[in-house]
Specification:
Order of helices and strands: HHHHH
Shape: globular
Radius of gyration: 15 Å
Number of strands: 0
Strand content: under 5%
Length: 129
């Protein structure tokens, strides 16, 4: 959830892609939106966990990411904003991994998310969908 809050703070233009990211005057709507944001954050973290499990299975890894991009095309995802999520994820996990964080770890996560973004973008721009 912190990752998405960071994205919405640093890149407010991303809010338009997430109907639950916009504040409401209705407390009940805000509570539902916070829950949906939390659920989306958990789905994102579960995806990262799943990707890490298949990182050595190139075909499966690529297929998962390409499919994820195709699904995000249905949500009208902006291909130019995909990289923002990897950057913010790294900012969000750095404090959690502070004892083992070093330039090599940061480089590994950066390269992983660059590749994730690349494959998702291929899925988003795929014209067979």
């Amino acid at each position: 959830m912190l990752m998405f809050m960071g994205i919405f703070d640093t890149h407010p233009e991303t809010r338009r892609f997430f109907e639950f990211a916009n504040p409401s005057d209705d407390t009940e709507v805000d509570i539902r939106n916070r829950q949906r944001l939390r659920e989306h954050g958990l789905r994102f973290m579960n995806l990262v966990k799943k990707l890490l499990a298949f990182v050595h299975d190139n075909d499966r890894f690529d297929d998962m990411l390409f499919d994820l991009g195709r699904r995000h095309k249905d949500y009208n995802a902006d291909v130019d904003m995909i990289n923002i999520f990897g950057e913010q994820f790294i900012i969000s996990i750095r404090p959690t991994l502070k004892h083992s964080w070093d330039p090599n770890v940061e480089e590994a996560w950066t390269r992983l998310f660059e590749y994730i973004a690349y494959m998702m973008k291929l899925g988003i721009i795929d014209d067979k969908n």
